[in-house]
Amino acid sequence: MTAANTRRAVPCRLVFGVVFRYCLRMNRAWKAAVWVLVGMVGWMACQGPNRPLTEVEKALQAWHDVNATKTANEKELIDIRNQLLSMPADSPPTRELTRRLAILNKKAQELAFEEFRASRVYEAAVEDEAEAKRQAALGANATANAQTNSSARPIHEVAGIQLFPFSIATDTNNGIRALSGTVTNTRTNAIDELTLEFDVFDSGDQMLGATSDFIATLPGGSNWNFKAILLDTNIVRAVFKEFRDASGTIQPSTPSTLPSLPGNTPAPEPTPAP
Fold this sequence. Notes:
Largest sheet: 5 strands, antiparallel
Order of helices and strands: HHHHEEEEEEEEE
Radius of gyration: 38 Å
Distance between the termini: 112 Å
Strand content: 15-25%
Number of helices: 4
Mean pLDDT: 77
Structural class: alpha+beta
Shape: rod-shaped
Number of strands: 9
Number of domains: 3
Low-confidence stretches: 1-10, 255-268
């Protein structure tokens, strides 16, 4: 019986126990009818849907199976050793017991390796499942951010880099205050060494300095959920200052000032004579 079937069997036993106590108070004919009906319904209910096992559950079951086989082998090995110790060395059964003992010893070595391998497979399955859940959470967050950004409008945009509404929040785990928000790179190319900087102010609108956050690479078309730490508890407001990359402050895109190519500017028409 699998672990899932065992879990289903517990409530089923409780149901049958209650029905049994109820049937004790009924006459024999009704008891038979009720037990037939309960038997049919209970059997169908206790079977339940066969949910496919996860990779972790499969690995754990395989580990338990190997361990059970190893335990049974060790028990048989101990029994044969005890028989050999209780017999004279030259008695007829000792040859067969010695042969079986050698086989069981070899099997014990193989099962020890199998148990170790099964434990490693189980640990790897647990790690893979945890990583899959983490990636799913990251994907859900990215989708939520993309949906938020698609409905919200950027408050600043510099050369294809968009800054969306931000706010001051306190991390409930460590109590650290930070300026949090989202930056989107609408370019097709990545931006390396991107820094986002804000000027910060107190309740009297006095500037207290600046805070910033940094990302090594922001790929094209992706979002960055920044978090600029606020060490001063008097900070209540922040104002966007600038974006910087490896070359310095990122300037707004401007029309090209290159001269026109030859032939693109029409020659002036001659002025008619008076």
